[in-house]
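Morning, I've got a small favour to ask if you have a moment. I owe you a coffee for this, so here goes:
>
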Amino acid sequence: MKISKVVNALEQFAPLPLQEDYDNAGLQIGLTEAEVSGALLCLDVTEQVVDEAISLGCNLIVSHHPLIFHKLRRITGEDYVQRTVMKAIENHVAIVSMHTNLDSARGGVNYKIAEKLGLTNLRFLGKQATVETKGNDSYETTVVVDGGEGVIGELPEPRTADDFIIMLKQRFGAECVMANQLLRRGIRKVALCGGAGSFLLPQAIAQGADAFVTGEMHYHEYFGHDQELQIAVIGHYQSEQYTCEIFREVIERECPGVKCFITSVNTNPIIYL
C-alpha cells in the first residue's frame, strides 16, 4: 500500500480545510508514491522520533503538531527543526501532520478527551464548519465532515470539584492541574478544548458549563470566574497525548495491514519539579 493512501485516509477523516488559517497541517516531507513500510504515530516530531522510526523500519511518521510550522529560509542544521528535516530526508522518511483539522473534526482530539472523561451528549462548542471531501474508495464518493473548535458534554453524574480534579490527574497523567477556586456546586456539564483553548472560555460560560478543561491558559484569564465555573488546565501535552490513538484507529480501519507503532518517546518539553 502506498503512503498516499494512508495520507488520504487521514485527510478524509480530518480534511485539511478544517485547519485554522495559521496552521500548516498536511504532508510535511517526503514522496507519497513509495510503499508504506510502517507508520510511527506521535504528538511531536523530533530527531529522537525520526531515529525511532528508522529503528522500527517505518518510512512514515504521522504527527499531531507540524514539524514545519514556519517558513524555512535555509536548511543548515542550526536548530532541531532543520536537523529533523535533514534526518528524515536522508533516511527517506515521510512526515504528515494532522493538527487543528484533527482538533476540529468530529471524532478528533476534543472528542478523544471527552471519551477519556466519559462525557455523553456531545456537541460542538464555538465556531463550526462543514466541508466535503472525496471518499477513500474507488467510487469517488463524497464525504461530509463537520468540525468545531471545542466540545461540550455531560458527566454520567455530578462530581465535586476536588474529585473532578483528581479524575483529570489520573486519566491524563497530569502531575498538576492549574485551577481557579474550587467550585462549591457539583460539576456535570463540562466544556473542553485540547491544547491552547482558553479562547473558548466565554463560550463555555455562555453554554452554562460547570467546568472548562484545556491545556493552556494565561495568568489573567483566570480572574473573575470564581464560583462561575471550574477552570482546569491540565497541560498542552497531557491534553493531546491520546491523539496517537485516533491515528491508529483511522489507519487500522481504512488501511488494513499497515503496521502502526505509537512512539515511546515522551516529547513533552516541560518538566514538573
